[in-house]
Design goal:
Blueprint (H helix, E strand, L loop, with lengths): L8 H12 L8 E5 L8 E3 L2 E5 H18 L5 H17 L4 H12 L12 H23 L9 H20 L5 H29 L4 H17 L6 H22 L4 H20 L10 H15 L5 H12 L5
Parallel strand pairs: 1-3
Antiparallel strand pairs: 2-3
Length: about 325
């Protein structure tokens, strides 16, 4: 019996597009497989496997598709170009033209609003597009890919999306003011926790991931600026800080050589110290979160006789910044 014909590059391109665009309701794990694998797309949600031998041909097809359609005005050409950007960024995570086209896709909704408001249909369409883009970017930066976790373009794209569409996404289009306030209070915290987990996973994929941790710094500052002036805001901010410090500290102790994680840990401790200084509160020694972080790190270093430069820098930074008494 003759074997079935091998899929053409057009067929494989269509399969990859179907898996990547629009982004499914879960974060994907995309992996580049050795060239010894058969030339076919392996897709079992939420995992996608692309043999290395197919990367270049599929990228060239995506690039040609994009530039053939990007200047055309009809809807089919526009969507063909948009789909092609997903494959382009899979091959080259720093392809600015493809990244900027995806930004413009979100900005198209701006021409459909009146003043600062969207109608319900446009708001729903924009919210869906924003969530799909965030999932697509999360899939790239957390997958076992060689360059994506540390791509300055992808992290800048994610920050741009959050800064420009954060309020609309967090409010979930509620019209009742009380519901909006509750969404800000609880939704912001959940969003921050999810983003922090993404950054930590990207840090595992690509150690010393300065771009990822810098995104976390910028996102933290932005989230704090977006919190509404609730009576209990300071309580929630401090609770978020304490939980984040504990989560990041555990990550750092599991990756003691990664100085980028330790520098973010110092950043969080500085925020906690400054917050408490603003209220005139005194440190409480070993019971204070800052003291606990320092003592646990020292205990780790002594227990395992750790001589790594990252932990030594962290402890020195705490003393220099007058964090560790």
């Amino acid at each position: 019996m003759p074997s079935p014909p091998s899929p053409t590059h057009d067929d494989l391109y269509a399969q990859l597009i179907a898996a990547l665009h629009p982004s499914p309701p879960v974060v994907l794990e995309v992996e580049i497989l050795p060239s010894s694998f058969l030339p076919e797309i392996l897709h079992e949600s939420p995992a996608i496997g692309v043999p290395k031998s197919l990367l270049a041909p599929l990228y060239l097809k995506a690039r040609k598709t994009f530039f053939d359609h990007v200047s055309l005005r009809d809807s089919d050409s526009y969507h063909a170009a948009l789909q092609a950007t997903a494959v382009i960024l899979l091959f080259d995570p720093n392809h600015l033209t493809a990244a900027n086209f995806r930004k413009r896709h979100l900005q198209r909704f701006s021409s459909k609003r009146t003043g600062n408001d969207y109608n319900d249909q446009d708001a729903d369409s924009l919210a869906e597009a924003v969530q799909q883009e965030l999932r697509f970017l999360a899939s790239l930066v957390t997958s076992p890919l060689s360059k994506h976790a540390k791509s300055s373009t992808l992290w800048a794209q994610r920050l741009w999306i959050v800064q420009n569409f954060f309020e609309l996404a967090m409010h979930e289009h509620a019209t009742d003011e009380a519901i909006q306030m509750m969404n800000i209070k609880y939704g912001t915290r959940g969003f921050w926790d999810e983003e922090l987990v993404i950054v930590m996973k990207a840090g595992e994929r690509h150690p010393r991931n300065y771009y990822g941790w810098q995104y976390a710094r910028q996102l933290f500052s932005f989230v704090q600026s977006q919190r509404s002036e609730l009576v209990e805001r300071r309580h929630w901010d401090r609770e978020m800080l304490r939980d984040s410090i504990g989560l990041v500290h555990r990550w750092c102790l599991m990756h003691p050589r990664d100085i980028s994680g330790w520098t973010f840990m110092v950043f969080l401790l500085e925020q906690l110290r400054n917050d408490r200084c603003d209220e005139g509160e005194k440190r409480k020694g070993a019971e204070d979160e800052i003291g606990i972080s320092a003592s646990e790190t020292k205990f780790f270093a002594r227990k395992y006789e750790w001589k790594g430069e990252s932990i030594e820098w962290f402890l020195k930074a705490m003393r220099t910044l007058d964090i560790d008494d």
